[in-house]
Design a protein that fits this description.
The complex is a heterodimer of chains A (110) and B (169). Chain A is mainly alpha-helical and 110 residues long. Chain A has one domain (4-105): Orthogonal Bundle (Arc Repressor Mutant, subunit A). In chain A, 63% of the residues lie in helices and 5% in strands. Chain A is built from five helices and two strands. Chain A has helices spanning 4-12, 15-24, 31-35, 42-54, 74-105, and strands at 58-60, 69-71. Chain A has a two-stranded antiparallel ribbon. The two termini of chain A are 41 Å apart. Chain B has a single domain, classed as Alpha-D-Glucose-1,6-Bisphosphate, Chain A, domain 4 (2-Layer Sandwich), CATH 3.30.530.20. In chain B, 31% of the residues lie in helices and 38% in strands. Chain B is built from four helices and eight strands; from the N terminus they run αβααβββββββα. Chain B has helices spanning 2-6, 20-28, 30-36, 137-168; strands spanning 10-16, 43-49, 56-62, 68-79, 83-91, 97-98, 109-118, 124-133. In chain B, helix 2 packs across helix 3. The chains are: A mainly alpha (110), B alpha+beta (169). The interface between A and B is large, with 41 and 43 residues.
Chain lengths: 110, 169
């Protein structure tokens, strides 16, 4: 079973794919231009793009002749929302852990 | 935007005024976990802990309106007192993994890598790294990719342990 967040995080786990997204955050661009800064082949860049497309992070226009790629922000927002919630949960738990460790060392708890 | 895509995981670092053995114990004994782990406002009802790689922690908590909420950890790797790697998920009373009760889009399972480092005899730093995780092939691959960085982290911890031992003698 797979869920959208897991797919997003799997797509984000690769540094080349994160660089591609960072580039697309500046504006839409062609695959050829997108591939220029990377020391890997055009097919390799296309492969990364397909992973990003499947995750819904990148869309390729079908209309224009040069078929520019653009960033799709929705899954990134979802991922950022999850990070924030999960961080909040652990921050709270760590506050209580801090209290507990103090109490246990003062002999107030086991 | 750049902060969002710089990393594909959550990382929290927190220092505690306690020796590492004690901090590790707070993570590895059911009655201690019940003292601090979990969402705010929930009451511990019961738990069962089998603390070993391949083992699990199955617990039940009660919400303020009286509903039971079950969850589980599944331990993947335990390196006492350095590191615990586990997944956590919501579950039912029988231990089967279920969707989060509050959000259908919440990940089914979350991978957590907790590292304990002794900054001194009496202070310990916990680093938590976490990301959504599922039972697919992709996840096993992701875990494989993670191994080199985990080992690097482990080496770093040994350096700190060496410093710590030097301070002791």
């Amino acid at each position: 079973m797979s869920d959208r967040l897991s797919t997003t995080f799997a797509a984000l786990s690769d540094p080349t794919r994160r660089s591609i997204l960072a580039r697309l955050a500046l504006g839409e661009t062609s695959v050829t231009d997108l591939a220029k800064p990377f020391p890997i082949s055009l097919p390799a860049v296309s492969k990364h793009l397909r992973v990003l497309e499947r995750a819904g992070l990148v869309a390729q226009s079908r209309n224009a002749q040069w078929r520019p790629c653009r960033l799709e922000a929705a899954p990134l927002k979802e991922a950022a929302g999850w990070l924030e919630l999960y961080k909040g949960f652990w921050d709270e738990s760590f506050d209580r852990l801090d209290d507990y460790l103090q109490r246990v060392q003062n002999g107030d708890a086991k | 935007m750049s902060t969002t895509i710089r990393s594909a995981e959550l990382e929290i670092t927190r220092a505690f005024e306690a020796p590492r053995e004690l901090v590790f114990k707070a993570y590895s004994e059911a009655e201690r976990l019940a003292q601090w782990w979990g969402p705010a406002g929930l009451m511990w009802v019961k738990s069962e802990l089998d603390f070993r790689p391949g083992g699990y922690f199955h617990y039940c908590m009660k919400t303020p309106d009286g509903r039971e909420m079950w969850g589980r950890f599944d331990y993947i790797e335990i390196a006492e007192p350095d590191r615990i790697v586990f997944t956590n998920a919501f579950s039912d009373a029988s231990g089967s993994v279920v969707r989060a009760p509050f959000a259908p889009d919440w990940p089914l399972e979350v991978m957590n890598v907790v590292t304990f480092s002794a900054d001194s005899e009496k202070t310990t730093t916990i680093t938590l790294r976490a990301w959504p995780h599922n039972g697919s092939e992709a996840e096993h691959k992701a875990f494989g990719h993670m191994q080199p960085s985990l080992q690097q982290g482990f080496a770093g911890t040994f350096d700190q342990l060496a410093n710590y031992l030097a301070k002791l003698s």
